[in-house]
Amino acid sequence: MSKTNDASFFAKIAWCKTIIDDPDFYPLPSSSRYPKVSTEDSLFATTLNSKSTVAAWQCFGRKPTFPEDTVTKEVRILASLGTELNSYPNILHGGFEGVLAEEASSVLEMSNKTRADCPEAYSEDGLTASLSVKFMKPIYTPQVVLITAAYTKVEGKKRFQHIEIKDGEGGLLATAEILYVRPPPGKKFVDRSGSGEEKL
Questions:
Q1: CA separation, residue 85 to residues 157, 158, 168, 195 (Å)
Q2: Would you give the distance in Å from CA 190 to the centre of its chain?
Q3: Residue 151 and residue 44: Cα distance in Å, rounded?
Q4: How far is CA 190 from CA 45, 103, 160, in A?
Q5: Is 49 helix (H, G, I), strand (E, B) or coil?
Q6: Residue 193: is its pLDDT beyond 90?
Q7: pLDDT exceeds cutoff 50 at 149
Q8: pTM over 0.70
Q9: Sheet holding 25-28, edge to edge
Q10: Radius of gyration (C-alpha) of the chain in whole angstroms
Q11: Is the dihedral of CA 163, 166, 170, 172 positive or negative?
């Protein structure tokens, strides 16, 4: 399975094909699926990149309405979840739902950080300040789910996000509220000096 673009896998599933073909969204690179020398993203790039964990992962961003709006305010992620992520038999570990929510939050942030045409682009990495998950229904595995992340409020360097995890029929499985904080000007939360960001 590709580490960066699994659209061909999801295109074989009818409801996923609808997500892929939505003209209001554009494909996003899944950089966290690339192994890196620095070990950054190793959780999703290596540990969770197998047929029995997260077999496929494809991201999409909602197109900004230029010129009125230049920010990607929502992302969608298709994720194929395997049985080695379970707690009870064939049920996803509840803690992993928080992992999915935080990764979706990161995808939303990166969708603007890496865009040259976006005035919201920034060079330094932010961090999750708080994460609250509400479990609605068990997430059975194996299963393909849709994860969405969207901004609900922006206050300076604070980014408030709402996350939802849904099944293929649109059933709500879990929600999360995340506060993501960007560093003040001239400061860094993550020291990358000498870390080596090249891909393996």
A1: 34, 31, 19, 30
A2: 19
A3: 23
A4: 19, 17, 20
A5: coil
A6: no
A7: yes
A8: yes
A9: 25-28, 54-62, 74-81, 143-155, 158-166, 172-181, 127-135
A10: 17
A11: negative
* 3-state SS, residue 88: coil
The whole-angstrom separation of Cα 28 and Cα 42 is: 19
Q: What is the pLDDT of residue 3?
A: 42
Name the amino acid, one letter, at 4. T
Local structure of 11: helix, strand or coil: coil
Cα torsion angle, 162, 163, 169, 172, sign: negative
More confidently predicted of 92 and 124: 92
Handedness of CA 180, 99, 150, 46 (dihedral sign): positive
Q: Tokens 């673009």 identify what position?
A: 5
Q: What is the mean pLDDT of residues 28-50?
A: 90
Assign 156 a pLDDT band (cuts: 50, 70, 90): confident
